[in-house]
Write a structure and sequence with these properties.
This protein is an alpha+beta fold. The protein is built from 20 helices and 21 strands. The chain has a 7-stranded antiparallel β-sheet with strand order 1-20-19-15-14-9-8. The longest helix is centred in the middle third of the chain and has 21 residues. Bound molecules: 6-diazenyl-5-OXO-L-norleucine.
């Protein structure tokens, strides 16, 4: 008996650190034993893996990765934008929610994007110097290094500087973007000079060098990251803004501060779920939707069946309706976070959801629909062998942000001010309606959908994810979590399954190509206004199970890469 037990324990313990390979699965994650990096770009993933290999931890790797993306994924990677990160610190078991979102300058006013007739001037909130919030990325990365990192911040700039100075081979995805955005970017001579050298649209395999950006990154390396806020880079920015009628001044830059908060927390079928608090709306609403969905046994109704998607859609409508009314910057508005997160509130909402009939959005709350644009943001997840984990989403808002580059600085400025509600009830670029809670004000941060997520098991990160996609971020992350927890998929299967999205207004249920036609017909029968759409979100996911790290980069963006250490 004793020997049987010893043999059993031996076999079990050697199983325990083997990858969970299931040959019956159609898709498989990458696995490794010492850490994992998943991002939307191969250069960036490789830079972060090299940092892990050289003794850096998840924070160091994140800093190197984020700077690299600013060079190799110019439409979304950035130093001219901002974002959010969740950081799980292994030594304390604590998770920090780090807010490095862009901030409205001190001269911003509620009506700054309205004309004399009180109508929104959309070109001003999207493509002018006034569209830029004070960028937070460099301060966020500096915070990560100083609070959690083991290596020098300035050393983490190395891979990005090399790629900017020596150039890198343009990927298929980047070549596609250069072609697609050429007309839109042609309004900015500085952007054209850098990304369309001698007027040429770079093709796959061409080399892209970025001298001005390399110089800016070198300034950050030489003077330290404060260069961006109080040093030589700050001075160039402030001078340009003042000479060209932009709102941001030297004091706005010097005053920029990272905010660190506890994450919002919830539970879903016994799992602990952590995400980003406001001014991200994603954390609150992903937990709210999970709470509503707990009212039905989704594993019984079945993955992506019309019945399950009906429950998802009705939950999404309720959450996005609440988003429009209650969410904003917590330093400026009181947000009923605990009310929105309470199980009772969600159970009450669930009781009003009919099992077989769609509630029209106008009966959930009134508003006016608007079309989507084609925007971009990017997410990455990193886990190191010490147990530290980071889930970080950052952005300049649209693809190529405001499309403004200050001459000589080489980086694109965000147009995050468009995430404010320029006028109550008028939708922003994602068709999202907002009200007073998200109106523009000096020093305020615009409401965001960016939603880094961690699901814990035994108090440690088990599932880590996040996504770009504007308003679709929240629902993409939601379905990733549901696919793993309710439908027992590995993270590769959970990523590849067709997604759906509803955001209350417009009253449209988007389904990805590949979502079954029979289910679409059934959903139409329930009263849903179903439309097949392009891809919904792009999750970069890690799972840590029995000491093995699994990673999977969402194939919805072309160059994603998961690599282990
Ligand atoms: O913060 C937000 O919600 C938006 N600015 C994010 C933009 C975005 O995700 C674009 N992505 N594809």
């Amino acid at each position: 008996m004793r020997y049987t037990l010893i043999i059993f324990l031996f076999i079990f313990s050697s199983w325990a650190d083997q990858p969970l390979i299931n040959p019956d699965a159609r898709f498989h994650p990458v696995s490794s034993k010492n850490g994992m990096v998943v991002s939307q770009d191969g250069f960036a993933t490789d830079a972060a893996v090299a940092v892990l290999k050289s003794g850096g931890n998840a924070a160091d790797a994140a800093v190197a990765l984020a700077y690299t993306l600013a060079v190799t994924l110019p439409k979304a990677g950035n130093i001219g934008g901002g974002g959010f990160a969740l950081y799980f610190e292994a030594s304390t078991g604590k998770t920090y929610a780090i807010d490095f979102r862009e901030t409205a300058p001190a001269s911003a006013t509620k009506d700054m994007f309205l004309d004399k007739a009180g109508e929104v001037v959309s070109s001003k909130s999207k493509f002018s110097l006034d569209a830029c919030g004070v960028p937070g990325t460099v301060a966020g990365l500096q915070y990560l290094s100083e609070k959690f990192g083991k290596l020098k911040h300035t050393d983490m700039l190395g891979p990005a500087i090399k790629l900017a100075e020596e150039g890198f081979s343009v990927s298929a995805g980047l070549a596609y973007d250069f072609q697609k955005y050429r007309k839109m970017l042609s309004m900015s001579p500085e952007v054209m000079k850098i990304f369309y050298p001698q007027g040429k649209t770079l093709e796959q395999g061409d080399i892209l060098k970025q001298d001005a950006l390399a110089k800016t990154l070198r300034a950050l390396q030489k003077e330290g990251p404060n260069s961006f806020y109080t040093g030589s880079v700050a001075k160039l920015m402030a001078d340009y803004f003042s000479q060209n009628g932009g709102a941001i001044n030297a004091k706005d830059l010097a005053d920029y501060k990272v905010r660190v908060m506890p994450p919002v927390k919830g539970t879903y079928r016994g799992h602990e779920v952590l995400s980003m608090p406001p001014p991200s709306s994603g954390g609150v609403h992903i937990i709210q939707m999970l709470n509503i969905l707990e009212n039905w046994d989704l594993s019984q109704s079945g993955h992506n069946t019309a019945q399950t998607v009906h429950y998802l859609t009705e939950s999404m409508k309720r959450a996005y309706a609440d988003r429009s009314k209650f969410l904003g910057d917590p330093d400026f508005v009181d947000i009923p976070v605990s009310g929105l997160l309470s199980k009772k509130y969600s159970n009450d909402l669930a009781r009003k959801i009919s099992t077989l009939k769609a509630t029209p959005s106008t009966e959930v709350l009134p508003g006016k629909p608007a079309p989507y644009e084609s925007p971009d943001t990017t997410h990455f997840s990193i886990a190191d062998k010490e147990g530290n984990v980071i889930s970080l989403t950052y952005t300049i808002n649209f693809s190529f942000g405001s499309r403004i580059i200050i001459p000589g600085l080489g980086f694109i400025l965000n147009n995050e001010m468009d995430d404010f509600s320029a006028k109550a009830g008028v939708p922003n670029a994602y068709g999202l309606i907002g009200g007073e809670a998200n109106s523009v004000a000096a020093g305020k941060r615009p409401l965001s959908s960016m939603t880094p997520v961690m699901v814990l098991k035994n108090k440690k990160p088990w599932l880590v994810t996040g996504s770009p996609g504007g308003s679709k971020i929240i629902t993409a992350n939601l379905q990733l979590v549901l696919n793993v927890i309710d439908f027992k998929m590995n993270i590769a299967e959970a990523t590849n399954a067709p997604r759906v999205h509803h955001q209350w207004l417009p009253d449209i249920l988007n389904v990805e190509r590949g979502y079954p036609g029979d289910s679409i017909n059934l959903l139409k029968g329930f009263g849903h206004n179903v439309k097949t759409s392009g891809s919904l979100g792009c999750t970069e996911t890690i799972m840590i199970e029995n000491g093995i790290f699994y990673g999977y980069a969402d194939p919805r963006r072309i160059e994603g890469k998961a690599a282990g250490h």
